[in-house]
Amino acid sequence: MSRIGRMPVKVPGGVKVEIEGTRVHVQGPKGELEKTFPAELSIQMQEGAVVVSRPGDAPSVRAIHGMTRAMIQNMVQGVSQGFEKTLQVEGVGYRPELEGKVLVLHLGFSHPVRVEPPAGIAFDIDTRARTIRVRGHDKEQVGQVAADIRKIRPPEPYKGKGIRYLGEHVRHKAGKAGKVA
């Protein structure tokens, strides 16, 4: 049996979980999320925790058991604490700005790039450290928005200019001067 799948998901105070068959609705102080899971699994509330169980050991059911439990855990954590990804802007003249809720990026293009936050997402910037924090209650959406921002100007391997995740290592290439004839 899946080691992750059989662990119960503890529901903290202030979070309300409603289970109707395979549909799970989670509501908390940061927002609310709803997701429908495969019908092969059984999802129940037991003693203040959500328990995901499977009827048998068919490979298709085993493959989704741990994933379903992890998704429910992320839903509960998202509405209670939230998620965030931090991006770092590297390069001379590259800088992020906020105009209201809209993120404006100056990345060496002929024009500034404006990024509208989708519903449930908020941006914070630190102009001195040139970092962008993407915050929200849906882990999948936070990761996707951060990836979309990074895709605007990914880090290049020669000087390292661009947008990268905080702590991401970019391998540098030597360039023309590094070639030996």
UniProtKB/TrEMBL annotation:
PROSITE patterns cross-referenced by the UniProt entry: RIBOSOMAL_L6_1
Ranges of residues in domain Large ribosomal subunit protein uL6 alpha-beta: 11-82, 91-165
UniProt cross-references to SUPFAM superfamilies, sorted A to Z: Ribosomal protein L6 (SSF56053)
Swiss-Prot/TrEMBL keywords: Ribonucleoprotein, Ribosomal protein, RNA-binding, rRNA-binding
Entry's Gene Ontology cellular component terms: cytosolic large ribosomal subunit
GO molecular function: rRNA binding; structural constituent of ribosome
Protein family according to the UniProt entry: Belongs to the universal ribosomal protein uL6 family.
Biological function: This protein binds to the 23S rRNA, and is important in its secondary structure. It is located near the subunit interface in the base of the L7/L12 stalk, and near the tRNA binding site of the peptidyltransferase center.
Protein name: Large ribosomal subunit protein uL6
